[in-house]
Design goal:
With about 150 residues, this protein is an all-alpha fold. It contains five helices and no strands.
């Protein structure tokens, strides 16, 4: 009596179907360079600009004064968080330097909160400021708790 392994036959039939699809796909698809050309022509026609990261908020000139102030405060706190990271990474980490960085961040959080509350509820900058505040508070708690050393 001869026993056949049905799994072997299915694998062969799947391979044959896959080969047919690959052959058909080569005939049906366009080249990558053509797709890239189409995408770049659409980009030129629409006028998409890249790079600054402020496109969702609009051009910087179109921002309201409250938005500009809130953005500047957020950037200031991000700079302080970056300074705190450098202090924590330094081998001669001093507790006083860490505490002073945390105090500087904490003192600016109330200002950031007020500026955020002054923005429209639908303003996308509010979410960004919320995230900056959240990261700042988490780092403050970690340092107070002694997580870093």
């Amino acid at each position: 009596m001869k026993v056949f392994n049905p799994g072997v036959f299915q694998v062969k039939s799947d391979n044959q179907a896959a080969q047919k699809q690959q052959k058909q796909g080569k005939a049906d698809s366009t080249s990558f360079s053509r797709i890239l050309e189409n995408a770049s022509s659409v980009e030129k026609n629409v006028g998409i600009k890249g790079g600054s990261g402020l496109e969702p908020l609009g051009p910087v000139d179109a921002l309201k004064p409250a938005q500009k102030d809130a953005l500047a405060k957020g950037e200031e706190i991000l700079g302080l968080l970056d300074h705190l990271a450098r202090v924590l990474e330094s081998p001669e980490m001093s507790g006083s330097a860490t505490r002073s960085a945390v105090e500087a961040i904490t003192s600016r959080l109330d200002e950031l909160r007020l500026m955020r509350d002054g923005l429209d509820a639908s303003d996308p900058l509010r979410q960004t400021l919320n995230e900056i505040g959240t990261v700042s508070v988490v780092e403050q708690v970690k340092i107070t708790r002694g997580d870093y050393g």
